[in-house]
Structure formats: C-alpha cells, structure tokens
Design brief:
Largest sheet: 9 strands, antiparallel
Number of strands: 26
Radius of gyration: 32 Å
Structural class: alpha+beta
Distance between the termini: 70 Å
Shape: elongated
Length: about 450
C-alpha cells in the first residue's frame, strides 16, 4: 500500500516535474506490496518451514466432505521433511492389507502448490491418507461409498485458509471438508492413548446421549456421540424432531471437535473440552455445555441399583428385617440380600422397588421380586418417587405373598419412606456407578450402587 504523502511533498512535486519522475520511481520500489504470486511463494516457504519445525509433527483432524455425515472424523498424524517427504500415521478402520484399526505408518511426498492460493497437496498414494480418496469399495467400507464414483468424498489436496504457529485450517479442494492441522504436543502413541482414555471416560454403550445447554438454558441433544458421527436434535424421538443434523467429530486428549462451527441459539461451538470438575464439557467461551444424560440413565436403567444398607434409617432397617422374615415364610432357606431400584426379572416385570434374595444353600442362585414405583424427572438432576395402591407388583411377588402374606404391605411401607422429590448426584457425571439422593421435599436420603 502506498505510504501517506505529506502536503509539503505534494507542493514540491508540483513545482519540480523532473523530481516527480524520480520520486515516483523510488516510491514504486519502496511503498508497494509484493505481487500476489510472490506473496504465495513466500507463504509456501514460510509454511514449509513451519511444518518441518514441529518436533512431534502434526495431528491432522481429517473429515470427509459428504453433505450429510457418513463417516466420523479421523485423527491422522504427519511429520514433514524439507526433502518433501511426509510420514503419515493412523489406526483408523479403513486401513488396508489387514491393518484395520492397527497403528500404521506410511511415507510419501507432499507439495506446496501455488494456485489461486496456497495448496498443501499429497498427490502420491499413501496407505494412511489415500484410502479416503479412492473411489473403489474395499474391505469393511460401507457399500454406499461408490454410488457417485467419489468414494468416501475425501480429499488429498487442501486449500490453506488460515495459519498460526500451532494451527493450520484447510479446506478440501474437491469436497470442501474442513481439515485442521494442529501441532502435536507429545508422541503420537501418547496422543492416541490419551485420546482413547478421554473417549472412554465420557462415552459408554449405556450412556450415549447428551444434553447440549446454552447460557440461556436452551436445550438440545447430541445422540450417539461414542460413534464419532452423532445426531444433533431437538428431540430424542427422531420421528418428531424438527432439527436432526448428523455431525462428525474427532476426539482429542481433552474432549472432541466437530468439523465445522455450529450453534445453539446465539452461541457458537466448535470444540468441547472436559471441565476441570469433570461434570460436563464446555465450548470455547464456556457458553455451551455438553452434559451426559446420567439422570435418565439412573432412572431408566433396567439393571438393579442396590440401596446402600449402611445408610438406612432405623425405620428402613426394621422394615428390611421384617421383609427378610416374610420371605422365609415362603422358603426357610431364603435370605434378603438387598433392596434396590430397577427392573425386576421374569414375567410381569415391573420397574420400581426390587427385592433381591438368594437361597442360603446356593448363594450364587439369586431371585427377585418387585413393586412398581412411579419415577419421573421434574428437571435435570432430579427424581420424583411415588407409590400408591395402583402401583402393581410383579408375578414373583404375587407368588411369594401367597405364603408370606405381609410382604406386599411391608414393601409399600418401605416405598412410602422413599416417596418424595430428590436431587441426584452421581459419583461420575459420564459413567455413574453410584448416586446420592438428597430430598428436596419428602422422602429420606439414600444412596444407590
């Protein structure tokens, strides 16, 4: 850009035409930027220096460019050399020759192409990267990837959009997926191990649905995060949902990142990081939280959560002993092991208060009987429990009460002690194995394991 020319110089130029020519020639050299081509050339040199200088190489957060996400995001690793050699590594499921999901390294060459802008190109086959580009179906690749002859809609040439010393943002030249290079801060295996550990700590086959909550308390859901390709929906019943977007993500040692920015209400999000207290994940500015639906898991989970007997009140302990005595009227060898909340086994199963008992002569053989409870979640992290005469018992309880005639009434008395609204606090907000229940109104404190 031409530098500002002061007024006195303009006056002087008007008076001295010969000096005008001299000054203009000087200003052409001193005040105008480089040509676009020269800028791109220098940019290519600077970027190559940056790529080579990373001691642990780079993590490539790689995505395929399908309109509706068909694939998860992939963590690839790359180390660049001045000789234009690049070594890629990964352990993704589309590696060939029996290497699926196995850590694999492969070397090839890279180029810094100078087109309309700077392009980082990998035009020679590489066993780690190129399978995403190949249109040929193979191995465990989904059948739908060759319908349009474009394979997985992956790219191997990337237009550079922005860069800093630690991050390079690119777009696939053909299919436009956003791909990010971020400087790796540890060895590649350490990064893989830390990422796997983080993923296991926030996802599970039992809990795979999450609240997405904004600072304005707008709430949507991520469903199926563990797969790396999940639904972003306003209703977990997808048949009723107005918004159902499939988003791909890559997991990181601290959380996960989706391909492109999205939003909830007025708040954008791109990457989520596990909070210091491990209760949720937060976006870049802290205005969006991802919270596992552990409250629904505790209420709806079909396995039996056993109540911690060491925390029973005197009244609960007395009822426990009376129920045990009633069971022995049905079978003298039976002993009450626990009272819990969950789903009973056998015909006519109910969800509610569950008695678990065993035979003294064969303690490994357990039995159960249940009394239905009405359990609702008034709001996140709360549970309301109630029981009335309308709450039924299961078939096992019906059979037991033929001899142990007082057992149903004793169970209803125990349930009455639990009737109330509680604040639930899990031991782990993503993978709970126990939960503390403190009464908000009615009820009594208890703990489930």
């Amino acid at each position: 850009m031409m530098k500002k020319i002061h007024l006195y110089r303009l006056m002087l130029l008007a008076m001295l035409p010969a000096l005008v020519l001299t000054s203009c020639r000087f200003e052409d050299e001193d005040y105008f930027d480089e040509s676009a081509a020269l800028r791109i050339e220098h940019g290519a040199q600077n970027m190559q220096e940056k790529l080579v200088a990373a001691p642990n190489g780079w993590v490539m957060q790689y995505f395929c460019g399908t309109d509706v996400a068909q694939f998860e995001g992939f963590n690839l690793f790359a180390r660049f050399e001045n000789s234009n050699k690049v070594t890629f590594a990964g352990n993704h499921r589309f590696l060939r020759n029996g290497n699926q999901n196995k850590y694999t390294e492969a070397s090839s060459i890279y180029e810094m192409l100078q087109e309309d802008g700077l392009v980082l190109a990998f035009n020679v086959w590489n066993d780690v990267l190129t399978p995403f580009v190949d249109p040929v179906s193979y191995g465990n690749a989904p059948a739908n990837i060759i319908k349009d002859g474009k394979g997985m809609h992956g790219d191997h040439n990337f237009v550079v959009m922005s860069q800093t010393d630690d991050e390079i943002i690119m777009r696939g030249e053909r299919h436009s997926a956003e791909v990010r290079l971020v400087k790796c801060d540890r060895t590649w295996q350490e990064y893989i191990d830390a990422t796997d550990a983080l993923k296991k700590s926030i996802t599970n086959s039992s809990i795979n649905d999450y609240y997405v909550v904004s600072a304005d308390n707008d709430t949507l859901y991520f469903q199926g995060l563990r797969n790396g390709r999940f639904l972003y929906t306003d209703d977990l019943d997808k048949t009723k949902s107005v918004k159902v977007d499939s988003l791909p993500c890559v997991f990181t040692p601290t959380g996960f990142r989706i391909e492109r920015k999205d939003s909830i209400g007025a708040y954008a999000f791109h990457e989520f990081t596990l909070a210091d207290d491990k209760t949720c994940l937060t976006n870049e500015d802290g205005n969006v939280k991802v919270i596992a639906r552990w409250d629904a898991y505790i209420v709806n989970h079909t396995a039996v959560w056993k109540m911690d007997q060491s925390l029973f009140s005197n009244e609960q302990t007395a009822l426990f002993n009376q129920i045990d005595a009633e069971l022995k009227k049905q079978n003298a060898n039976w002993s009450l092991e626990s009272i819990g909340i969950g789903k009973s086994a056998g015909s006519g199963a109910v969800t509610g208060l569950i008695l678990t008992f065993y035979t003294n002569t064969a303690k490994s053989k357990t039995n159960s009987a249940g009394l239905e409870l009405t359990m609702t979640r008034p709001q996140f992290g709360q549970m309301a429990i109630s029981c009335s005469e309308e709450n039924k018992i299961d078939k096992n309880m019906e059979n037991i009460k033929k001899k142990a005639t007082g057992i149903e009434e004793l169970c209803r008395s125990f349930a009455a002690l639990l009737s109330g609204t509680y604040q639930m606090t899990p031991d782990n907000y993503f993978l709970p194995t126990s939960g503390q229940f403190e009464p908000i109104s009615g009820g009594t404190s208890f703990k489930l394991n």
